[in-house]
Design brief:
This is Isochorismatase. GO terms for molecular function: hydrolase activity. InterPro entries: Isochorismatase-like_dom (IPR000868), Isochorismatase-like_hydrls (IPR050272), Isochorismatase-like_sf (IPR036380). It comes from Paenibacillus borealis. Keywords: Hydrolase. The protein is α/β, with parallel strands linked by helices. The chain has one domain: Rossmann fold, CATH 3.40.50.850. It has seven helices and six strands. Strands 3-2-1-4-5-6 form a six-stranded parallel beta sheet, with helices on both faces. The longest helix has 14 residues. The N and C termini lie close together (9 Å). The N terminus is likely disordered.
Length: 190
């Protein structure tokens, strides 16, 4: 295992039942995520799951366009079945789940403490949505000086054109953008 692999982690973000059901309609759409997870495990790269996990009874400001319309007790707590990780992507017992309160994986979570305590300085990003958690996490992680890779086919967005522009034009300014297959091949070449 190379030094770089010891310092990397795959983030599997917002792959929760309610979110997957909103964005995924084609059978096989989760295959790149499954392959990325399997590849990370095979190469000893930690897999960290990140997802929305509000506290029971929390009311979010109506100024927040994404979360502000949800009533308190709207079922987006970590324990709610709709917020569980999709069964086809289930974490192993030693793979942590990091709950977050907003769009970025870092917002209101202990993700940075977890990463720093494990000496992780490079993140491989995957998740739903490209224009949501992936974009927000990429921007914040870049500002925190993490090395970044985005797995373009292990990101999904409701608007294919937005996905194309982000992965083809915006993300490359701060991250390496690779398909899961290209990323997996790069690991075997190291």
């Amino acid at each position: 295992m190379t030094k770089e692999q010891n310092q990397s982690a795959l983030l599997v973000m917002d792959m929760q039942n309610a979110i997957v059901s909103r964005y995924v309609s084609e059978e096989g759409a989760l295959l790149p995520f499954q392959t990325a997870i399997m590849t990370a495990r095979e190469h000893g790269i930690p897999v960290i799951y990140v997802g929305v996990a509000m506290r029971e009874g929390i009311q979010i400001s109506p100024l927040n366009k994404m979360f502000g319309r949800m009533p308190a007790n709207s079922g987006i707590t970590a324990e709610h079945p709709s917020m569980q990780i999709h069964a086809s992507l289930s974490p192993l017992p030693d793979e942590p789940f990091v709950g977050k309160y907003r769009v970025s994986a870092f917002s209101g979570s202990d993700l940075e403490n977890l990463l720093r305590s494990r000496g992780i300085d490079r993140l491989i990003l995957s998740g739903i949505a490209t224009s949501g958690v992936v974009l927000s996490t990429l921007r914040e992680a870049a500002d925190k000086d993490y090395g970044l890779t985005v797995l373009s086919d292990a990101c999904i967005d409701s608007d294919p054109e937005v996905h194309r522009v982000l992965t083809g034009k915006v993300f490359p300014a701060q991250a390496d953008v690779l398909t899961v297959e290209d990323w997996a091949n790069s690991l075997t070449q190291e």
